[in-house]
Amino acid sequence: MIDTVTKNISVITGELCSYQVTQVNTNRVLSVPLDPANTDYQEILVWAAIDGNTIEDAD
Amino acid sequence: MALSKILPKSIASNLGKRRLNINGDFSIAQRGATFNSVAHNARTLDLWQVYKEAGALNITQSTDVPLFLFKNSFKSDTATAVSGATPGLNCFVHKLEGSDVSHLGWGTSVAKSIAISFWVKSTKTGIFTVAIKNSAGDRAYPAEYTVNVTNTWEYKQIIVPGDTTGTWLITNGIGIQIIQTISVDATRRASGNAWGAGNIYASTNQVNGIDNANNNWIMAGFQVEVGSVATPFEHRSFGEELHLCKRYYNLLTTGSASKYMSMASAYNTAQVTGVIQLNPTMRATPTIDIVSGTNYYRCTFNATNFDFNTIAIDGADNKQVLWSKGGLSSLTSGSGGWLQTTNTASYMAFKCDL
Fold this sequence. Notes:
The complex is a heterodimer.
Chain A: E1 2-9, E2 16-23, E3 28-33, H1 39-48, E4 55-56
Chain B: H1 9-12, E1 34-35, E2 49-52, E3 56-62, E4 73-80, E5 90-97, E6 114-122, E7 126-133, E8 139-147, E9 154-160, E10 174-183, E11 189-190, E12 196-197, E13 202-203, E14 216-226, H2 238-245, E15 249-254, E16 260-266, E17 272-277, E18 287-291, E19 297-301, E20 304-308, E21 312-316, E22 320-325, E23 336-341, E24 347-351
Parallel strand pairs in B: 11-13
Antiparallel strand pairs in B: 1-3, 2-5, 3-4, 4-14, 5-10, 6-9, 6-14, 7-8, 7-10, 8-12, 15-24, 16-17, 16-23, 17-22, 18-24, 19-20, 19-23, 21-22
């Protein structure tokens, strides 16, 4: 289950290139590409559409 | 004159690569072999996902197999039972990629039948269901089979006529979902052995397979093939089966404190990058699935170590991943080195499950 989602900015292009996802009750982290065919990316879109969930800017 | 023997068409069509599904012998378990109190939607043995909405299940890669025909099986052990005839949904889902089933012609007037065969050993007897569904979950065929004797291996064959309507993907998305249901509520049932609309997981006759904490349900030799006859299980080598699984999940490292994963370079004084080639080509651009921990990963440049907790995707497609790590300091820009693990709890894989 998604806990937080943070934007990751490319070292090379300076543009958004992936999302860093932390999950509830685990130290497994996901680095998710911006690919509509990726099921983790699809889950982020669903998660972000829920009131109260926000994708955070990169540090 | 040389003689040659030409096989009848009905036989010839069954030669060669018959099995459409991957990991039907349950030999591949890249994520691990034991999943206690498995979470809803969890990925377990390769290409097998669990939907768990009631009770608690322990999933294992078992060595309980029928007649020495296989090395492994898929075992569900009910840890917390739910009584009643219609508990919540508990099922095991295998998804066939659309590009692998395009030749079935589903959704057209020439849709071909498929044959599903498997061994099952269940504490609970009675009628169970294998549900066949499309990607959208709006077409379903709940096929019934009966477990006749408790805790005894039985061989089951199910013939499913091709669906001539509905939308069935032939892309790199979900082509066909095949679902082994052991329990379900009343709202997601329909008449058995017939195509229909709706998000159906079982027939109206489905038993409650989780009504007792002593219940086990075990499956072995699961095969899906084209046609109206189930043939003997097609064994593939471990290497071939693993290679096929890596299109969806590719484990790079686990359990090692000194696993070398990638060459690396210092992009500038604070950021490192590297490229990992994916073999085989994956279904889609993968996620990096990584265990984060204090200084679990290390880059070494000019005999100096730089430790950090995790990495991220900087750019990728389904053939390679450019990874990066920022926030470091005192790197010598342009230096070459490598990325490695430093802890036995370090873990990294690429995933693009269906």
